[in-house]
């Protein structure tokens, strides 16, 4: 089954398969299936043509994939342009929501293998 150019995995339940589309998570997938009156446990290859069309129509009502990615990128660009603190954090690839950076977010920053410890060398016993 294809929806707006994305092929849904055939071997997964519909509730999970819909999450392959950017912008649809588990709660929205459940809402779409409930509105379309489709069982969440069905597989995409078990659906009838009417059910597929109903799901397709509901999914196209949301802002997903390219439109959503463009909107998010535009929001980040706006924050950078007005030189907001969050925009600066995005530009530097650092956490934007107040998380600490001493111990976490090290892989993003590039400080991968720095041992935390006392900083002293162990003395050898003779």
| Fraction of helical residues | 40-55%
Radius of gyration: 23 Å
* Total beta strands: 2
- Poorly predicted ranges: none
Largest sheet, described in full?
2 strands, antiparallel
Task: Indicate the CATH architecture of the domain at 2-62.
Answer: Orthogonal Bundle
Mean pLDDT: 86
By secondary-structure content and strand pairing, the structural class works out as mainly alpha
Kindly identify the CATH topology of the domain at 2-62.
Helicase, Ruva Protein, domain 3
Write out key terms for the chains shown.
126 residues, 3% strand, elongated, single chain, mainly alpha, two-stranded antiparallel ribbon, Helicase, Ruva Protein, domain 3
In summary, what is this structure?
The chain is mainly α. It has helices at residues 14-17, 26-36, 49-60, 65-81, 85-91, 106-109, and strands at 2-3, 6-7. It is elongated.
What features would you describe in this structure?
The chain has 126 residues and is mainly α. It has helices at 14-17, 26-36, 49-60, 65-81, 85-91, 106-109; strands at 2-3, 6-7. The chain has a domain at 2-62: Helicase, Ruva Protein, domain 3 (Orthogonal Bundle). Strands 1-2 form a two-stranded antiparallel sheet. The chain is elongated and about 80 Å long. It starts with a strand and ends in a 17-residue tail after the last helix.
């Amino acid at each position: 089954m294809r929806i707006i150019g994305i092929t849904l995995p055939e071997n997964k339940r519909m509730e999970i398969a819909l999450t392959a589309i950017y912008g649809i998570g588990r709660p929205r997938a459940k809402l779409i299936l409930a509105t379309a009156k489709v069982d969440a446990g069905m597989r995409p290859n078990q659906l009838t043509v009417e059910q597929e069309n109903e799901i397709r129509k509901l999914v196209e009502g949301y802002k997903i994939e390219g439109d959503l990615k463009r909107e998010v990128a535009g929001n980040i660009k706006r924050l950078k342009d007005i030189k907001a603190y969050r925009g600066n954090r995005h530009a530097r690839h650092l956490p934007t929501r107040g998380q600490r950076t001493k111990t976490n977010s090290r892989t993003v920053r590039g400080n991968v293998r720095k041992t935390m410890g006392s900083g002293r060398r162990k003395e050898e016993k003779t």
